[in-house]
Design the sequence.
């Protein structure tokens, strides 16, 4: 009998059948990813289950056991009654303060940085290179170096200790970095569209509102997620520039965990931490898909 020669397609199919399904490097990658997931998931699991336990269950030391019975007393107490210093109104006060800080910060920073980035990227500005160099330097200046001058300036403007003052400080610190992000993104836009708009007697603001802004949806999502998570999770700026009744949620959380009036209630601490972390987590899970799209569309490209 004569052997029938194999075609290239059938030869590839034979090789695919002979190829082992489980390869050593796949096993190593899977084990590494499993360990990385456990590194973050196990502490989160302990925090969640502890927040639903009573103190009698916590004292048993069985941190991985499920609550029996489940109770939300720690959550309600953390929200409305936990003590932050002499103030025993829970983390809801910090939640409201964080909203008052977040809203003006987003408006100020995004409105200024997007217009500046648009002008530097798409218009012929003589001093653009020097301004970009200054922005690049300012974006990486540590906050601790300029902390005292900012305190003096905030005090002179009579906004020190207010939620609006904290918002202004966040805007000042975020403006250089976000301007560079918007500038890099706008540089990737098709130049033919902008050139055609200029030929069609398009002004600076008309091109911005009618062409550039509608094409900036992806990068806006990226900036929103970066700003919301950065401002909401900030501790140092809120602690430095906030007064007793204007401190953000992270500072209130810190005060609750270090304030002791009798026995330490770890369930309340865990519930307070989860309440503080929930808003940025919800934002990220809702807009996470658009965040990836914005990054791949050129958010941080050089």
Sequence:
């Amino acid at each position: 009998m004569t052997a029938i020669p194999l075609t290239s397609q059938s030869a590839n199919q034979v090789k695919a059948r002979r190829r082992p399904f489980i390869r050593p490097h796949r096993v190593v990658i899977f084990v590494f990813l499993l360990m990385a997931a456990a590194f973050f998931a196990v502490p989160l699991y302990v925090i969640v289950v502890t927040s639903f336990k009573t103190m009698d269950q916590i004292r048993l030391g069985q941190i991985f056991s499920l609550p029996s019975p489940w109770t939300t007393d720690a959550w309600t107490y953390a929200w409305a009654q936990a003590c932050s210093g002499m103030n025993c109104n829970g983390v809801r006060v910090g939640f409201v303060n964080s909203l008052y800080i977040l809203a003006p910060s987003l408006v100020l920073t995004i409105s200024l940085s997007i217009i500046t980035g648009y002008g530097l990227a798409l218009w012929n500005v003589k001093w653009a290179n020097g301004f970009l160099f200054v922005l690049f330097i300012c974006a990486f200046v540590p906050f601790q170096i300029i902390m005292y001058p900012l305190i003096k300036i905030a005090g002179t403007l009579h906004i020190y200790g207010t939620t609006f003052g904290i918002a202004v400080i966040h805007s000042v610190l975020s403006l250089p970095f976000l301007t560079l992000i918007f500038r890099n993104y706008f540089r990737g836009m098709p130049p033919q569209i902008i050139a055609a708009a200029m030929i069609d007697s398009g002004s600076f603001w008309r091109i911005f509102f009618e062409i550039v802004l509608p094409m900036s949806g992806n990068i806006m999502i990226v900036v929103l997620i970066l700003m919301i998570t950065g401002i909401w999770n900030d501790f140092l700026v809120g602690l430095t520039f906030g007064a007793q009744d204007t401190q953000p949620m992270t500072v209130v959380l810190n005060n609750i965990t270090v304030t002791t009036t009798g026995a330490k209630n770890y369930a309340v601490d865990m519930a307070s931490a989860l309440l503080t972390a929930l808003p940025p987590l919800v934002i990220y899970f809702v807009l996470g898909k658009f965040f990836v799209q914005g990054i791949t569309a050129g958010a941080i490209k050089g």
User: Anything to note?
Assistant: The first helix runs from residue 8 to 18. Residues 24-70 form one domain.
